[in-house]
Automatic annotation (TrEMBL), chain A:
The lineage of its organism: Bacteria, Pseudomonadati, Pseudomonadota, Alphaproteobacteria, Sphingomonadales. It comes from Sphingomonas alpina. This is Succinate dehydrogenase cytochrome b556 subunit. The gene is sdhC. It is found in: Membrane. SUPFAM superfamilies: Fumarate reductase respiratory complex transmembrane subunits (SSF81343). The keyword Transferase does not apply. The heme is bound between the two transmembrane subunits.
UniProtKB/TrEMBL annotation, chain B:
It holds the Pfam family Sdh_cyt. The keyword Transmembrane applies. InterPro entries: SQR/QFR_C/D (IPR034804), Succ_DH_anchor (IPR014312), SuccDH_FuR_B_TM-su (IPR000701). Membrane-anchoring subunit of succinate dehydrogenase (SDH). One of its GO terms (cellular component) is membrane. Its cofactor is heme. NCBIfam families: succ_dehyd_anc. Pathway: Carbohydrate metabolism; tricarboxylic acid cycle. The chain crosses the membrane at residues 30-50, 62-79, 99-123. It is found in: Membrane. This is Succinate dehydrogenase hydrophobic membrane anchor subunit.
Length: 136, 128
């Protein structure tokens, strides 16, 4: 092994050199949204609860950071980001449950299922925020 | 590499009989999360306002505090399993062990703060 001189062997093409279908996108997005919610989402959620339990002043600080800074930019970015992450992760999660049964692996239905998660998550996020901001 | 005894293979068990543990708990909490998080999102959307008194009064109800605690238990366990896979896939050697310990501290620590906060609100109500 060590006595053989190194030979330049062909490398398999890296991920950027192959086609990038929607199925690959929703797969990595499932992980990204899950881990994003696990870190950013947990931080915001625990802060919200602790501030609420702490009393009027601590809740006012929480509300100030999320609704007043830069015209509420933090609240919108984190809030809409987490909502979109949640609905996307939920949709791909449901898709994984269906795939677990062995169904939906044919190329066409697999691709359609992947697209449906994206369409569903964007639609649900838009509906959620439209209801929150204007529907009431 | 063995695959266990013939009987074990028929039963679909690994040699330690815990081969599917992570996979199964991930699915189990995923199903629980689906119900609990949909309840949470709909309830949050339907709150009349988001000021201190309104939100605190909402959490202080047993019908909210209990599902909220269940949500913390299920969601936090679920994200612990997910972050574990992230660490296993991308981080190696000693750092992987360190991060796995940090992950457990993070999960248990944040869950403790969340559950304590909910209980404190539920047990003390809304101060005037």
């Amino acid at each position: 092994m060590a006595t053989k001189p190194p030979v330049a062997r062909p490398l398999s093409p890296h991920v950027w050199h192959v086609r990038w279908p929607i199925t690959m996108t929703v797969s990595i997005v499932h992980r990204a949204t899950g881990d994003g919610m696990a870190t950013v989402g947990t931080g915001a959620f625990v802060w919200w609860l602790a501030a609420l339990a702490g009393g009027k002043d601590s809740y006012a600080t929480f509300l100030h950071v999320f609704t007043q800074f830069w015209g509420g930019a933090i609240g919108y970015v984190v809030g809409i980001g987490l909502t979109l992450s949640f609905f996307q992760h939920m949709a791909t999660g449901i898709r994984h449950f269906l795939l677990d049964t062995g169904a939906g692996y044919e190329l066409k239905s697999n691709r359609i299922g992947a697209w449906l998660t994206v369409i569903g998550s964007v639609t649900l996020t838009a509906a959620f925020w439209l209801y929150l901001l204007g529907g009431k | 590499m063995g695959n266990g005894t013939n009987l074990g293979r028929v039963r679909g068990l690994g040699s330690a009989k815990h081969g599917a543990h992570h996979w199964w708990h991930q699915r189990l909490t995923a199903a629980a999360n689906l119900v609990l998080m949909l309840w949470f999102m709909i309830a949050i959307a339907q709150l009349p306002a988001y000021d201190y008194a309104t939100v605190r009064n909402w959490v202080s109800s047993a019908w909210v505090a209990i599902p909220l605690i269940l949500l913390v238990a299920s969601v936090f366990y679920h994200f612990r399993l997910g972050l574990q896979v992230l660490i296993e896939d991308y981080i190696h050697d000693e750092l992987q062990v360190v991060l796995m310990i940090v992950l457990n501290f993070f999960t248990v620590g944040t869950a403790a703060v969340a559950i304590f906060s909910i209980l404190r609100i539920a047990f003390t109500g809304t101060p005037a």
